[in-house]
Every structure is written in structure tokens, then in C-alpha cells.
Amino acid sequence: MRLQRFLAQGGVASRRKAEELITSGQVKVNGRVVTELGSKVDPDADKVFVAGRRILAQRNVYILLNKPKGYVTTATDPEGRPTVMQLVPSSERLYCVGRLDYNTEGVLLITNDGDLAFALMHPSRGVEKTYHAKVQGTLNVEEIERLREGVTLDDGTKTRPAHVHVVGDTGNHTWVEIGIKEGKNRQIHRMAEVIGHPVLKLERVDYAGLTTEGVKLGRWRSLTSEEVAALREMSGARSTVVRKRSPQGRRPSTRTETRSEARADARSAPRSRAHEEPRKPPRHKPRGGRGQDKRGGPPAQAGRPGRGAPPARTGKPGRGAPPARTGKPTREGRPKAGR
Fold first, then answer.
1. What pLDDT does 314 receive?
2. Which of 33, 55, 101, 116 could form a disulfide with 237 if both were Cys (CB 3.0 to 4.6 A apart)?
3. Domain match, 103 and 220 both
4. CATH code: domain of residue 187
5. Is the pTM of this model over 0.70?
6. Alpha-carbon distance 124 to 99, whole Å?
7. Which residues of the chain carry a pLDDT beneath 70?
């Protein structure tokens, strides 16, 4: 895991701010200052400190909130308005997946998993959001078709095709269901204004297949592991689950680890037989009788047993023995040994 990502997940700061902390020399890994961006750490093994305070990896949190109107979807508000974080007390550093307007209700995902949040919000992933909008007046067929095909907003951008159909009409206003796969600022409001039917009330009823069923307004619940896995598969987000590593043969996890530390880790890790160094062959010891080697070498020196002549090489006379004389072949076909 990259160091700046680890710091962001640990609640220290955003990734951009974490990068500034690293380059300014305020971050230590295993007792050494790390200033290089992109350095990697092992959350299970490495010790990371920022300004003398140790940072621990936080568990991932996934929350579905049924947001009521009258709350902003930010951690703080300069105007002093209530924030959705007040409805979800947690010691973790959380943020919203996308935003809902101050007076908009409905499904809101809150997490500290930055990779999943980014993937869900990116327009290229095509994650669908469904809204129920109460608009002023009655929509005709042509206006509904314009919303389906895409309309040009006030800033000149055109919306993508949307799923649109009417769910109720009172004559004074119309309830319409709109499904979009992008998330422009106040997009539903701006789409309705283009066709001349301002939004009177807006509720998000579905986000990536998740609804507020069983969750009262202003309440929340944690997502199940199956729901999180489905969100990852839908958005193509990579997993952030930290897997425990075996202590055997652990390599240095940061670029700042010294060679001596790496060698110490390698020595402490048990080795298999395939990686053992070959043992040196034992010295030759005489096996003959007293005072003479069995292979014809000179007598061993007194007091220094076991240092007789080395064995003769095949086809060459040994150094410790005189060369054999060529005799007449015996019955067995072998030459007689010289005397």
C-alpha cells in the first residue's frame, strides 16, 4: 500500500495533504524519515509515525444513511448548518460518496474506503442513481422524451440519456422517476428547469441497487459484505482488504529500509533445503593399517593422523605413490603391480 494512501485511510489527512506531510519530512517509517512519494508500507508490519504519533490502519466502514432534508453532505459547514456526520457518530474519518442537496432526501453512502468511493462516483463506471422528483405542472410526451435523450444545461454541457417515466400526476404537479448514470452538480434540478418544470421535492430512492427499505428517515445501517462486494464488482474498484503476510522471507516493504535490516530479516527467516549452501566435503582420512595408507601412500607423520596422501586420480599416478610398472598380463587380464 502506498504511504500517502495509508495515511489517508488512517485519518491523518486527505491524500494530497498526506503527500505534503511526506515531502516535508514529517513522516517516519520504522524509525527512518521517508520523503519519497510512492513509497510503500505494509500495514501489518511497518511502524508509521507522523509528528511523533503512531498511525494505525483503520478498518473500512460502509454506511447507508437515509438522509433527511436540512443537512449538508460535508464534514463541516462554514454557515453552521447541520451535517450528515452528526447523524453517523464514528471515530473513523468518513466522507460521503457523492452529494445530496441540503433539501434532498434519500440514499446516501458514507465510507472511509477512498478507492471504492472514487470508483462509484466516476462517470466512466456508469453507476446508476434513481430519483423521485416532484415537479411543477404536468409533463407532456415531448418533454419526457427530451429528458430521456439528454438536455443541454445552462453551462452548455449535455446530459447523458436517462431513464424517465411518470409515476403520478395531480394536475398541479407531476411525480417523475429519473435514472441517471452521472452526477453533475444539482443535475436533476437543472434538467427540470430546462424543460420549464422546476423541482419542488427530490428524493433519491436507489443508489447502485441499494435502497432505504427498512431504514427510517434520519437513520442508517451498515452494508453487508455481500453488498460491498457487489459495489466493487459493479464499479471495478480494487479491494483494500489487508491480508496478513507470512513472516517467512519478508522483504523490505519500504525503500528506506537499510541493507543491514534486510539482511537481518533474511537471516531470521527459516530456509528450505533447496536454499541451503552446499556443505564442504570432509578431509580424507587414512583407512589403512598402522603407519601406511591403504592406497599405497607414504606413512602418516607421527602425531598427525588422518593426513595421508590424497587419492590418486584415475589414469594418473598418485602423488604419494611411485608409478606402477607395466607387467605381463595375468590370467585375469590385469597387469601385475610393480614391486
1. 52
2. 116
3. yes
4. 3.30.70.1560
5. no
6. 18
7. 238-339
